[in-house]
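The records we work with from here on pair a chain with its fold. Each token is a code from a learned vocabulary of local backbone shapes. A record is reproduced here so that you can trace the correspondence yourselves:

_____
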Amino acid sequence: MTKGGMESVEVFTSEGKGRGLKAREEFLPGDVIFAEPAYAAVVFDSLTHVICHTCFKRQERLHRCGQCKFAYYCDRTCQRAAWLNHKNECSAIKKHGKAPTENIRLAARIMWKIEREGSGLGEGCLVSIDDLQNHVDSLGEEEKKELRADVESFLEFWPPQSQQFGMQYISHIFGVISCNGFTLSDQRGLQAVGVGIFPNLCQANHDCWPNCTVIFNNGKIELRALSKISPGDELTVSYVDFLNVSEERRKQLKKQYYFDCTCEHCKKHIKDDLMLAVKEGESKPSAETVKEVIQFSKDTLEKINKARMEGLYHEVVKLCRECLKKQEPVLGDTNIYLLRILSIASEVLSYLQMFEEAADYAKRMVDGYLKIYHPNNAQLGMAVMRAGVTHWHAGLIEAGHGLICKAYAILLITHGPSHPITKDLEVMRVQTEMELRMFQQNEYMYYKMREAALKNQKIQVMPEPSNEASPSLFHKKE
């Protein structure tokens, strides 16, 4: 349910955190608290020719801008919708001879918008672009060097006839992008494809166990409630994946976002014991054995990443099997190093059409995730969905349907019924429900019909495994 616009939230001063957002009315799990279009957004450099520069959808055939030969669009409708933001960019790219990097392009789009509309509060904005945090003063020497390089590249690209801005203000804009750039995903939410600035969203503070999530849907970001929220409650989102012990999450937040996390889960180290679990009972391993297995797991993950980069998927499977053999007698079922290997193994084995083994690993991964993640976590929902599809491919219809139903219930809250991935999941849910009825009526006939159906259709290849994790909330420049 969509509650409405920005009137349902307000900016307030959060103790120890600076500005924050709080609710002005009650929200239930799955409610859209607000939806916000991007102040400015661009497609990643590596995907400019396969992603529409207006709606950020992945399309097989895109129309290229005839002027700059750089921007691509779904059709004339998307191209016309983009012209206000692309007009200056188009001319500048032609004069510059090539398109600059995504950070430069995003900064330029922000500046052209300021040139057109000013930098004050626009309609529906709770905060101006000038008031967003930039953390320039907190940058280390290497980061300052990168900032100076970005400013120099920007000045080379920026047309002399456009409004001229001072070095300090340009640095502020790059700082804003670094701290507040939100990752945009493709239409199915599976791949990060761009970066944008959403001033209202930037006001939501971090909590490792948040009461809200953020989803990019139909050209806007949606702030969605994960639990019941009362009037006056602070609205929080998680900037990082929860699947890390509190110490590691705090290090990551300090390094990327320049603050010390003081949320309850970090202060009390909640769930750390689960994430570092070891086998209990008579066969409980020694501390030295645990240390050795953890180090072996870390070394294996590095080897796996290298093999994945080179497309050596059978080598990845071999490494996973060897690592699991070492881990299983020592690590508990919720240990994050075990779960990481199970996740990679299930994904790569599915891609290699080895579905039965993949389904076993996926089930163990999901069982661990369910004990660690918030019950309405988007990454949990996506993992459960993938496990359900893997079970279906393995012919395990009962378990597959159960997992798909569980994933659908989560994604209805985190993504909403109108999101493309939820719509896809609803189709799968209906299909597996019909198959399950058939299976329960006549198991032999079900498998015969399934075998005949699979013979008459092209083998469906699972998506090629990606080195990228699920799209994170905020985009950080590599």
Notes: The first helix runs from residue 76 to 96.
